[in-house]
Specification:
This protein has about 280 residues and is of the alpha/beta class. The protein contains ten helices and eleven strands.
Length: about 280
């Protein structure tokens, strides 16, 4: 069977172009958009993400304010910086790069961000509005996956959708977004009995389980659409996902690669959220 490779780079580039146009229109009306990015410590992976976010801001015409603060910053100091940014009318979005150092409670930090500036979509209020279908910020990775499907011409309504993984950042919001698009949704996790039987029902299979190459062909229904959220380095230091691409691809009608699938979408949707923040505020 010949499958379609879902190109996250191309689709994310389109979304960033759209954001750039909207930012330009806002600028003509005298509205500037700015994103504050806070990074505590110098985790190398986090530094790469932060750099990519700054690049995307620059491309879209969004002003990025960066706060790179030392590892030993206390929770109180971090919360007081967030409070200051909440109060600052010139700041539209606030993003705290996770993970944080062990001595800082992530929940306290997420809850301290004004929900109207929560461009990551992690605040309990953002999650609540998603649950009941009200306007608010949606977590960037799941929102990006919906765009990947829609812009690749994949119909979600009425389809059997299976999400493997139930994290607060991907699995749970993913399930809610698929429901919003009228999919029939099953969420699997480490306690799911007979995982293969469940995943083989999926017309759309979304895998965010955090185990390299875990999903092989025997988990996949013929002609399914497979979205791989995982990112790992294998024994040869090459990037791979939660899905064994070489084993699975031929069985699918469409599949995302790693890298170049879901990854680029996360930052594109962050830019989208920054632009949306203007109307939400």
């Amino acid at each position: 069977m010949s499958y379609t490779l879902i190109d996250g780079k191309a689709i994310s580039a389109c979304i960033k172009e759209e954001c750039r146009d909207r930012v330009k229109k806002y600028k003509e009306e005298g509205v500037d958009i700015s994103l504050a990015v806070i990074q505590v410590g110098a985790d190398p992976a986090s530094s790469v993400y932060v750099r990519n976010k700054k690049k995307a801001c620059e491309f879209c015409g969004i002003k990025s304010l960066s706060y790179e603060i030392p590892e030993e910053t206390t929770e109180e100091e971090l919360l007081s910086l967030i409070h200051k940014l909440n109060e600052d009318k010139a700041v539209n979005g606030i993003l705290v790069q996770l993970p944080l150092p062990k001595h800082i409670n992530e929940d306290h930090v997420i809850q301290a961000i004004d929900p109207r500036k929560d461009v990551d979509g992690f605040h309990p209020q953002s999650v609540g509005t998603l649950c009941i279908g009200q306007p608010g910020f949606v977590s960037c990775t799941p929102a990006g996956i919906i765009q990947l499907l829609k812009r690749s011409g994949v119909e979600i309504a009425g389809k059997e959708c299976v999400v493997v993984g139930r994290s607060n950042i991907v699995g749970k919001p993913m399930a809610l977004l698929l429901l919003r698009e009228n999919g029939t949704v099953t969420v699997c996790h480490s306690k799911t009995k007979d995982l293969k039987e469940v995943t083989k029902r999926a017309d759309i299979l979304i895998v965010a389980i955090g185990k390299p190459k875990f999903i092989t062909a025997e988990y996949v229904k013929e002609g399914a659409v497979v979205i791989d959220v995982g990112i790992h380095r294998n024994e040869n230091n090459k990037l791979c996902g939660d899905v064994d691409f070489d084993d699975v691809a031929e069985k699918t009608s469409a599949i995302t690669p790693v890298p170049g699938g879901v990854g680029p979408m996360t930052i594109a949707m962050l830019m989208h959220n920054c632009v949306e923040s203007v109307s939400l505020q």
